[in-house]
Amino acid sequence: MKDTLKHRGMRNQLAEVVAAKGIEDPRVLQAIRAIPRHLFMDSSFEGHAYQDKAFPIAADQTISQPYTVAFQTELLEIQAGDKVLEIGTGSGYQTAVLLHLKAKVFTIERQLELFKKTNLFFKKMGYRPKKYVFGDGYKGLPEEAPFDGVIVTAGAPEVPKALLSQLKIGGRLVIPVGTDNQVMMRITRKSEKEFERESFGTFRFVPLLEDKN
Ligand code: SAH
């Protein structure tokens, strides 16, 4: 598959759709205009890649809806050079958005098939996260902590404590919390022990799974 002018035109329209739903950060909208989402998906979905919808990827997972990606990214309030941990790499689309915002990205995926596939794709496309880890993101990445931002792209039954402890003071965790549906939460670390919690709308994600061993 290639990236053509037609794809670019569809991306501009997608950015308008996402903006009309309330996304304001110009850097996030620019990322949507720039990143060739169709290349992150199976070729059979190519014709749908610029609809504002989630689609299946490998291993029964989904590429998140562009609006959701934009919403979570906006909530993270990233500055260039920020260290960001992403749990649930999936197709790598959200990763590419974070890289476009010039974050230093650490990303974790627990499905081996997807991990391998996306690893090859990152290499092919020249996307360079600081680290791409195969494993359970429930535990975070203590050896690289603390982070300015942590983003979870799967529905968490509860907020993993490890992720809170790996935030810098002032750092933000953006996480959808719930089982069937999820409430988008942003938890900001105000001091060593104090966390501010804000909740936003309802979303629907595949589950965040914990590897119990
Ligand atoms: N941002 C991705 C979303 C993929 S769906 C995209 O837009 O493509 C969520 C991903 O989280 C899935 O790939 C799933 O395998 C992964 N996941 C679920 N539980 C996880 C865990 N504990 N650690 C790491 N990844 C996990």
From TrEMBL:
Principal EC category: transferase
* Name of encoding gene: pcm
- Documented EC number(s): 2.1.1.77
Pfam families cross-referenced by the UniProt entry: PCMT
What subcellular compartments does it reside in? Cytoplasm
Provide the function of this protein. Catalyzes the methyl esterification of L-isoaspartyl residues in peptides and proteins that result from spontaneous decomposition of normal L-aspartyl and L-asparaginyl residues. It plays a role in the repair and/or degradation of damaged proteins.
Q: Which organism is it from?
A: Zeaxanthinibacter enoshimensis
Question: Which residues span the membrane?
Answer: none
Q: Name one GO molecular function term.
A: protein-L-isoaspartate (D-aspartate) O-methyltransferase activity
Protein family per UniProt:
Belongs to the methyltransferase superfamily. L-isoaspartyl/D-aspartyl protein methyltransferase family.
**Which reaction is the catalytic activity of this chain?**
[protein]-L-isoaspartate + S-adenosyl-L-methionine = [protein]-L-isoaspartate alpha-methyl ester + S-adenosyl-L-homocysteine
User: Which GO biological process annotations does it have?
Assistant: methylation; protein repair
Q: Where is the active site?
A: 64
GO CC annotation: cytoplasm
Record keywords, A-Z: Cytoplasm, Methyltransferase, S-adenosyl-L-methionine, Transferase
Which protein, by its recorded name, is this? Protein-L-isoaspartate O-methyltransferase
